[in-house]
Amino acid sequence: MEKRVLFQSAWLPWLLIVPQMAIIVVFFFWPAGQALYQSVLQEDAFGTSREFVGMANFERLWNDPSYLDSFKTTAIFSVLVAASSMTLALLLAVMANRVIRGAGFYKTLLIWPYAVAPVVAGVLWLMLFASPYGVISFALQSMGLDWNHLLNANHAMALIVMAAAWKQISYNFLFFLAGLQSIPHSLIEAATIDGASPWRRFWTIVFPLLSPTTFFLLVMNVIYAFFDTFGTVDAATHGGPGKETAILVYKVYYDGFKALDMGGSAAQSVVLMAVVIALTVVQFRFVEKKVQY
């Protein structure tokens, strides 16, 4: 029998959700509406004059080769960040789930990076790879690899991917560890008695039962790579060398606050929002079919 909550007043349920709705309206719908409004305007840097231009800002974006290149850069960056951070987090969660003595200490160390701000993460990894004084850069040079993220686009991309993935590993680790701990040990013990190897037990029992967690983290990591990595990119490479690491969210900032193209920047933010919404819908439409609840 389904249990339902009965309110004495018809207005009480709406009153209870007013704080949450206010936050959503103020911090999501209002900025999104402002971006849509500014995307069809042409205005100066100081906002003293405005002119309605319709879809001209969007047409200018599709005719800009550097903006189209940023789509490719963002796609490569987001795939590498999501794949590497989720893979390493799952590996660490499996290892931490087996630790008995000192398990709390290991888990605490693995969670700490999540408290680091994206800008700080970018600066930390920049210092590690700063040539020729960075620790990792010095080690690479001693092995014959001349690391220079200021001139080499591949090195710059690798730097921001490592910084962004390192920042997100702790978040993924928490959910994977919680998912592993919710799996009944009786299933693992039964498979062990049947002679299944650890690798086979993981792929046939553990990983399918983790599919809801994996799907949730896939959606969250894609959103993270598209939106929350601006500080890391700005601190580590400033979108360079050239514009090789200028992902979409960084280009929105650069064109709006440095190039002072307010209308073009607003149009880019609308496109970025539409891309993320479309990716999320695709994930829920197709990827979720493979999730076993």
List segments where confidence is low: pLDDT < 50 over at least 5 consecutive residues.
none
Shape: globular
Number of helices in the DSSP assignment = 13
The average pLDDT value, as a whole number, equals 87
Label the structural class.
mainly alpha
Distance between the termini: 22 Å
Main sheet: strands, sense, barrel? 2 strands, antiparallel
Q: Over all CA atoms, what is the radius of gyration?
A: 23 Å
Q: What pattern of helices and strands is seen along the backbone?
A: HEEHHHHHHHHHHHH
| Proportion of residues in helical segments | over 70%
- Strand order, largest beta sheet: 1-2
Fraction of residues in β-strands:
under 5%
Number of strands: 2
Short description:
By secondary structure, the protein is mainly alpha-helical. Helices cover 71% and strands 2% of the residues.
Structure commentary:
The chain has helices at 12-38, 56-62, 65-98, 103-111, 118-129, 135-142, 153-181, 185-193, 198-209, 211-228, 230-236, 248-258, 262-286; strands at residues 41-43, 50-52. It has 293 residues and is mainly α. A hairpin with a 6-residue loop joins strand 1 (41-43) and strand 2. The protein is globular. The mean pLDDT is 87.
